[in-house]
Write a structure and sequence with these properties.
4-stranded mixed sheet; 4 strands; alpha+beta; 194 residues
Length: 194
């Protein structure tokens, strides 16, 4: 058991959660979840790597972990990528004697660097995805796109109706948009008629 791998793992997950994810996305709950899942995977991986257990028990433990679903909130694809990175870093950190510190550091750095670049505004500019609630029940996607463009001054590239409510006269819609005013958001926004 190499304590340096534990230190590397803790430093890496803190960098991922608090230096990379939180400043960009401002979700304290998910930053804490990233640390929690990483430390949990690190502990389980270390226990499996140091114990003399059969492959069946190891697969069973990971099977139990895999059935846990994140039911509290829906995660965006970006947040899923951060979750997967936290899991991967925990697995690498828990490998123990099976991996050299240099290789582990290189792999962990590659994961963090890949997310830092892929999630940066320098690489991904000009488009966004958000969920909006329009205060009109509009079933025609083209009419809905025009309505959203008039209300937000954003160029709508694609709309997908999530919920159409004729009783409350509202439409929940996933919007892919572009232009200077594009804002990434996973929280629903409400559009009110003028």
């Amino acid at each position: 058991m190499d304590v340096r791998l534990f230190a590397l793992d803790i430093a890496a997950i803190c960098a991922l959660a608090f230096a990379l994810y939180y400043p960009r996305h401002r979700r304290k709950d998910l930053a804490v979840a990233l640390v929690g899942v990483n430390v949990g995977v690190l502990a389980v991986t270390t226990a499996l790597a140091t114990a003399t257990v059969g492959a069946g028990l190891g697969l069973g433990l990971f099977g139990v972990l895999s059935i846990i679903r994140l039911r509290s909130t829906e995660l965006s694809q970006v947040e899923v990528a951060y979750y997967f990175a936290a899991l991967a870093i925990g697995l690498i950190g828990g490998m123990g004697e099976g991996m050299s510190l240099g290789i582990a550091a290189l792999l962990i750095a590659a994961i963090i660097l890949a997310l830092a670049v892929a999630d940066s505004k320098l690489v991904m500019t000009g488009s966004s995805h958000m969920t909006l609630v329009a205060d009109k029940a509009l079933s025609d996607p083209e009419e809905l796109a025009r309505y959203i463009e008039r209300r937000t001054d954003m160029k709508v590239r694609e709309v997908s109706i999530v919920r159409l409510d004729y009783v409350n006269d509202s439409t929940t819609v996933d919007v892919r948009c572009g232009g200077a005013a594009a804002v990434e958001s996973s929280r629903p926004r409400t559009l009110r008629a003028a």
